[in-house]
């Protein structure tokens, strides 16, 4: 990027923010603070996609903007930079540094490639299914934090070192994020956004909601989402696209490796313990309520620093580890959470929802499509849970006001709350931190968002109306 173009992007960000904050009438989003929150989203999206500054630098814009314009409570904004999810990502990143130091990454990568094979379409299908299955019962962030480092190790071993310049590597990481988003809809345990939805359903019906009912209701939607997303991802690569090498080549590479050392085994055990404990929290939450997945990963990361080789040297030393931790991943994720907080606290999200409610359409299909547009696009600029908290009450108010049964529309809103494809917020920040370009995510995300909006509007109308 030449310097003139870079500066044009740099200046365009604050100019767009100023346009929203100073010149858009306050009645559009309800207040000057709400205008500023929307302007901040536009500014960050522009800088993340065009990259005139480092991605992590853009992630700190919510703090800078909020300090000057006081759009939201500053404590609420900055708390996103030290949330539980941030600690989870930090712990996972530290532990994957120990993989690189001990050589575990090469061992795992060669084993995966020798089993899956290097064909990119097969890779895409299997990574998607793995991510979707795990996300059906686990928080999406936990799934992505656990699976993406493994995929990155595999890609680097296969020669895809620079993920930003590798279409193949970027597609694999995008696949995992898409799978986590789709899988989250399968059961109420797929994420906090689903539990928020369940709470509102129980408030409406005054009865306990059976989780099996959720699975049954969403079964046709889930089948469509899994098939359509995999087909979309498969068509992003050629039939002949492969990672470097053959299945036999990677099998031979795996066989060439020496017997796993003591420190390798310990590193693997710690990661396995962190993953299993995170995945099985429901079994010990009653007697260890504070041991959440984020803290499990941090504890295991601390233990990684205690591992010593036979020659007496430590596997991890902080001075070296801090240089290898993917800090950009952590800050981009935090920045997305922070700007989402500004959108919600300023009232911008409610204002957007009110525009939806003002439609007052008696046409059920138009109402279904509007709900999906509202929830899917809002999920792209804030967290899925925050979207559920904002969107579900609005959907209930609108449908009740129109004299309609709210429950089917709440189900439809739950679909949109779980899906988002375009911007590096929420779990979509994780592959960005490992090198994927936000412009690549936006480029691939726009077509599938349009496809999902059109197809899900039809399918949801058929399924729930």
UniProtKB/TrEMBL annotation:
One of its GO terms (cellular component) is plasma membrane. It comes from the Bacteria. InterPro entries: Cit_transptr-like_dom (IPR004680). It holds the Pfam family CitMHS. Its main location: membrane. Residues 46-416 form the Citrate transporter-like domain. The chain crosses the membrane at residues 7-29, 41-69, 81-99, 126-159, 171-194, 214-235, 266-284, 290-308, 329-353, 365-398, 410-434, 446-464. This is Solute carrier family 13 (Sodium-dependent dicarboxylate transporter), member 2/3/5. The keyword Kinase does not apply. It is found in: Membrane. Keywords: Membrane, Transmembrane, Transmembrane helix, Transport. It comes from Succinivibrio dextrinosolvens DSM 3072. GO terms for molecular function: transmembrane transporter activity. It is a multi-pass membrane protein.
């Amino acid at each position: 990027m030449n310097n003139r173009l870079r500066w044009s992007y740099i200046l365009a960000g604050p100019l767009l923010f100023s346009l929203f904050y100073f010149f858009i009438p306050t009645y559009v989003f309800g207040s000057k603070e709400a205008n500023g929150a929307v302007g901040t989203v536009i500014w960050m999206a522009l800088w993340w996609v065009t990259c005139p500054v480092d991605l992590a630098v853009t992630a700190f814009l919510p703090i800078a903007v909020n300090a000057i314009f006081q759009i939201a409570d500053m404590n609420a904004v900055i708390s996103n930079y030290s949330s539980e999810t941030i600690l989870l990502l930090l712990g996972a990143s530290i532990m994957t540094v120990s993989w690189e130091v001990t050589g575990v990454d090469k061992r795992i990568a060669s084993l995966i490639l020798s089993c899956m094979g290097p064909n990119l379409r097969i890779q895409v299908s299997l990574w998607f299914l793995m991510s979707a299955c795990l996300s059906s019962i686990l928080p999406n962030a936990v799934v992505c934090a656990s699976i993406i480092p493994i995929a990155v190790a595999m890609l680097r071993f296969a020669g895809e070192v620079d993920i930003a310049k590798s279409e193949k590597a970027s597609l694999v990481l995008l696949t995992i994020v898409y799978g986590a988003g789709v899988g989250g809809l399968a059961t109420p345990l797929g994420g906090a956004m689903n539990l928020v939805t369940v709470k509102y359903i129980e408030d409406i019906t005054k009865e306990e909601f059976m989780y099996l009912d959720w699975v049954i209701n969403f079964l046709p939607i889930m089948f469509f989402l899994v098939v359509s997303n995999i087909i979309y991802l498969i068509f992003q690569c050629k039939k002949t696209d492969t990672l470097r090498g053959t299945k036999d080549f990677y099998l031979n590479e795996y066989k060439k490796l020496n017997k796993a050392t003591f420190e390798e085994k310990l590193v693997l055990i710690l990661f396995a313990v962190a993953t299993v404990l995170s995945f099985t929290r429901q079994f010990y939450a009653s007697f260890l309520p504070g041991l959440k997945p984020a803290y499990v990963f941090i504890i295991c990361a601390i233990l990684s620093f205690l591992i010593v080789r036979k020659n007496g040297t430590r596997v991890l030393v902080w001075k070296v580890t801090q240089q290898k931790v993917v800090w950009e991943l952590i800050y981009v994720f935090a920045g997305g959470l922070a700007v989402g907080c500004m959108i919600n606290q300023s009232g911008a999200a409610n204002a957007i929802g009110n525009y939806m409610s003002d439609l007052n359409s008696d046409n059920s299909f138009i109402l279904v499509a509007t709900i999906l547009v509202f929830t899917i696009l809002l999920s792209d600029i804030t967290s899925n849970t925050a979207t559920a908290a904002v969107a579900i009450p609005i959907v209930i108010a609108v449908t009740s006001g129109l004299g309609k049964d709210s429950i089917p529309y709440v189900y439809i809103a739950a679909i949109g709350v779980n899906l988002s494809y375009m911007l590096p917020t929420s779990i979509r920040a994780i592959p960005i931190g490992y090198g994927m370009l936000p412009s690549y995510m936006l480029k691939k995300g726009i077509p599938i968002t349009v496809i999902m909006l059109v197809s899900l509007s039809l399918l949801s109308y058929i399924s729930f109306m």
